[in-house]
Design a protein that fits this description.
By secondary structure, the protein is mainly alpha-helical. Helix content is 82%, strand content 0%. It has helices at 2-28, 33-56, 61-64, 67-91, 96-106, 110-153, 160-168, 171-184, 191-201, 204-215, 218-223, 226-249, 254-264. The radius of gyration is 19 Å and the shape is globular.
Amino acid sequence: MLEALLFAFNAIAPIFTVVIAGTGFRRLGWIDGHFVQQGSKLVFNVALPLLIFLNLIKLDLSVTFDPQQVGLAVLLVLLGFLALWWFSALHAPAPEQRGVWVQGSFRGNLGIVGIALCAQVYGEAGLAMGAMLLGAITLIYNILSVWVLQRSLSVESLPLSQTVRGVFSNPLILAILLGLPCAAAELQLPGWLDTAGHYFAQMTLPLALICVGASLSLDVIRRAGRLALTATLARLLVLPGIQLGLAAAFGLNGMALGTLFLMLASPTATA
């Protein structure tokens, strides 16, 4: 047990040390809200897609891609979402709060925290397997999030074409859609382009985690009410516990189960 706890601590501590550093930098005035906004935009549109793409094209998909894992991930996310939507009718005191509570309970931060944990624990192979999960789950996340927030607010639905266009213009999805055929074709980038791409890719996790830390508000956390607390418990404990138990029951194990756990147990995505 002690060995397992030390392993978990050593995997998580570096990531959250950088997050805490971001909070400290913001309090010291070294970075501000404008830096966080622009830095996050750079991560989402350039650095993280390059990180995913460059790791995908190096891999043997016959070894990395696990159809059972990806299929189970999509099924578990759908089942979790449906259970949370049903429970929200009993738990949320106002109809307009249902969508916010469900969003806070089911949507994990795959693109920053989940990917960072996969890379920290399993290296490049884990990052690539996490990228496969990110692509499949993000598609489901985006569609379900739009639906649940619109439904709870009783606003007019977006046209299907606009929803699909929004999902497939996501830079992370595009990186995966480009990376998979390049990996299958065993494409090799010119040396200078590969090196330049890695310069951008290597700044992904530190910059993203600093921005996450700088955007945290301890005052807001102290004022968080019952809905925020229960959404946090559902996101970090209840939902991943049930989902990973089901995944293990279906026979998933090893790195496939580990990366699925790290992605499904990631804290809530803020947007």
